Protein: Phosphoribosylformylglycinamidine synthase subunit PurS
Organism: Flavimaricola marinus
Amino acid sequence: MMKARVTVMLKTGVLDPQGEAVRHALGALGFDGVEGVRQGKVIELDLAETSAAEAEANVTRMCEKLLANTVIESYRVEIA
Amino acid sequence: MMKARVTVMLKTGVLDPQGEAVRHALGALGFDGVEGVRQGKVIELDLAETSAAEAEANVTRMCEKLLANTVIESYRVEIA
């Protein structure tokens, strides 16, 4: 059994209103010096797979098909 | 300038309907062997701070105050 972690972020240049909202809220709470905020999602998967290489190939296909919108999002796969 | 990454996940035992939805969707797409899925969020911050220790203390306070709902979510702070 393997664990995989997928991190999906909006690509650079794509407007991130969630991140902007967090940045404003932090400023309103008195946190200075926050120059930029980007918010993304992380998906942790428990896989029956035993080969790390197979698991990574599989999870990459999951990203392409479902987990990320590759037009505006980039993703990173880590296998543990 | 420092970069911080905060990962916020629902605590173990807290129902994760988003993760469940992803698990079902992966099954429907023919991906077998996905035994569990948890979905969380990741927040990347650009900080004016120059001390890593100060940055970590600051970001931890941001988590407690805004970024995580510590009743049901756990968070992890990484400084780079």
Q: What stands out?
A: Residues 52-67 of chain A form the longest helix (16 residues). The radius of gyration of chain A is 16 Å.
